[in-house]
Amino acid sequence: MSINFKLVMKRNNIFNYQLLIFLFAFTFFSIKVYSQCIIPNEFVGNTGSNMTLLIQPTFINALNVQSNDAYIVATTQSGLIVGSTSVNVSQTSLAIWGDDSFSPEIDGASEGQSIILSLVVDGIDLINVFPLNLNNETVDISYVTNGFLVLHNADIQYSCTFDPNSGCTDNSACNYNPSATSDNGSCVYLEGQCDICEDGIVIDNDIDNDGICDIDEIPGCMDESACNYNPLATDPPIIFDSELNPMECSYSDEDGDGVCDIFEIVGCTDAFACNYDATSTTDSDNSLCIFATGCDTCSGETDGTGAIVDNDIDDDGVCSSDEIIGCTDDLACNYDATPTTDTDNSLCIFSVGCETCSGEQDGSGYILNNDIDNDGVCNQDEVEGCISLSACNYNDLATDDDGSCIYAVPQYNCDGECIFDSDNDGICNLFEVLGCTDSTYLEYDESATEENGSCQTLILEGCLDNSYLEYNPLANVDVSSLCITPVVLGCLDIFACNYYSEANTDDGSCTFAEIYYNCNGDCLADIDGDNICDELEVYGCTDELACNYDATPTTNTDNTLCNYSTELDECATCSGETDGTGTIVDNDIDDDGVCDIDEIIGCTDEIACNYDATSTTDTDNTLCNYSTDLDECATCSGQTDGTGTIVDNDYDDDGICDEVDYDDGIGLNEFINAPINLYPNPSKDFINIDFESNLSNVSVEILNSLGDVLILENLADVSSKYIMQIAVHNLPSGLYLLRLKSDHQLHRVNWIKN
Fold first, then answer.
1. Would you say residue 621 lies in a domain?
2. How far apart are CA 512 and CA 127, in angstroms?
3. Does 361 map to a domain?
4. pLDDT tens for residues 708-738?
5. 408 and 393 in contact (C-beta within 8 Å)?
C-alpha cells in the first residue's frame, strides 16, 4: 500500500509543519540575527540515550579560556547540536546525546556518526577544538550508545567572531534585520499566498500546493456515493493501517440511520447511569448501563468511560467524605487528637537518632532534622576543623570541614623538604635539569643539574676555513692561527690541455683532447682525409626505404646491409627508427593472412557465456568463460557480443539452485503473498516499509550497487502486518536495494536516496 508522504504530514496539520520548521531552524544553529559567523547554542534536552566524554584538567587547560562565559558544544557534520557543557576546572564530563528512535525527527547522533567539538567564548567567538590522546595524536570521536571516551589534551584553532552588524538589509524580506549595517546575502522572501514569516523564517502553509492553505484544509470522504460523504472536504483522509478512521469512505448502513455501520457507537444512553455515553447511537435497552448506590457516586464522564466511584474505602458504612483520618499515637510527631479512623496508626511518623518532633498535636506536626549534613553526628556534637587526611593540619577530632586545610607545595612535604631527591642534592627529582655537565664537550649545558649522558662530542680545535690547505673538516672549534697556506686552484694533470703548474689544489677544471683528436681538434689518424677520424667512421644502410636506414653512416653506399619489410609479407612494416636500429615489424602474428590491425579478438565458442559472433581470432577459445566453471546452478546472461556474463543461481552457495531452494517449493520470483511496500521513494532522511505475512527469522537489509550490506535489521518472527522505519540520512545519494529475507522467502525492492 502506497502512502503519500504529504498526507502523512498533514495528519497533524499545521502544528507538525511548524514543529519541523522549528527543528530545522534549531538544528541549523537557531540564531535570530543572520551573520557570516553562526554561533551554536548550548544543548537543551534529553533524548534518552548518550555516550560520555571524560574531560581531564589538561584538556580544559589547553583551551586557554580567560572568560567565565564559555562552553563546549558537540555537533554532527550536518550541524545538529548533540551536546554541550560549560568550561570550568571542575567540569569532568560531556554527554553526547543519541537520536530518539521513538520520534520521527533526527534529534541526536546516530551510531558511528562523527562528532565535532567547538568552543564558544562570550557568545561571539567560535573556536575549533581537536581532541588529543596521551601521545598528543588527534582523536576522531564517533558516537556509540553508552560509549565512554577520555579526552586528555586538545589543539585549538580560531574560526570566527560573530558580527551583529551583518545581516539582511532589505525591509521587504522575511528576515529583515533593522540593526544590520551590511548585507550578507541572507535575505529570504515570501512566495506563495499561504506563506508567512515567523522569526525570520519563511513557513510554507500549503504543503500539498493545491492553493488551499493548510489551516483551511478539511480532510474527509470525497466520494458522493459513500454514506459518510463530506461535501466540505478538500483533501482525502489519511489512511491508517491499524485503526478506524472516521473520515475514510464507508458504504454500509444496515439500520439506515445515516450512520455508517463501521462508525456506529455502542454504549449506554441512560443519563442517570455512571457510564452514560452521549455519543452512543445504539443499545436502546441500556443493557450496558451501570448505576451508583449508597455512598457510591459516578465519576462524571459522559462519553461512556464513566465508572462507579467507591466513597467508603474502608467499608465501615461511613462515607469517605465524612471520615476524619489521622495518627492517634501521642508518641508520633504528627499525633492528632481528633481523628476517628486509622486506629492502626499506619499514617504515623516517628523521630529517630538526632531527630525530634516539632510539637504540634493537631496532625500538622513534623520531624526536625538535627543532623544537617547527614553524617550521623548531631548538630550540637559537631567539631569544626580540617578533615582532609592529606592536609598538613589534619584534625582527627573534627567532624565538619571548616575550610582551614593547609597543603604542602607539590613535590615537598609539610616541612618544606623534597619528597623525592634521589641524589640528595637538595633539588627535587621533578625540578632537576637534565643535560651535559662536562665543559670539554660541545653539548655542555651550564644550567644542567643532573648528568643524563648527553655529552657526546669532544671539543676538537682546528682550521675551519676551507680556503687554506690546513682546513680540518673534523674540527668543531675554529682556531684561525692554524690556517697558514692559501689554496691555489687549478688543473694538476700534466697530460691535460690546461695544466697549471702553480696550482696546489685540483679544482676539477682539467680539460683533455677528445679521443682520437689532439688539443687543437685535429684527427690523430685520418687515412681517407675526410676529417672523420678512422676510428669514428660509421657503417650502415643509407637507403631511406629500408627498415634499418641510418641517416648517420659515412660508408656502405651500395646498401648491402639494408633490410626491407617486403621481404616478409604485405602486412609487415618498419619500426620507424632512422639511426640504423630499425627492424621489420610482423603485423600478422598468427600468420593467417589477416593483418593484426584488422583482427577481432574474442571467444568464438557459441556455448560460452562471453561468446562473440564477430570475433576472428582465439580459435582455441582461451578467452571463453563457461557457466559450468562456477557450478551446475549457473547460467549465461545471454549476450552474443562478447559482453555476456555468468549468472550465479545459487545465492547462498549451499549447492541448491535458488528456484528450488526452499522447503515449500516457493521460487525467488513467486513471492506474491507477501509484497513489500516502501515509501517515500525517492527518500532523503528515512524510509518506511510495511508487509503482511506469516514469516519466520525475518531480516531486512539495505545494499548498495556493489552488493555491500550497509544496514541490517533482524526482526525474528512476523505473524501479522508489520511497519518499521529506517533512518537513511547518513547514506550518500544513489540507487539502493532493500532485501527482505526469511526462512522461506526472499523479496527485493529498488529505491533511490536523494
1. no
2. 69
3. no
4. 999 998 887 777 788 889 999 899 988 899 9
5. no
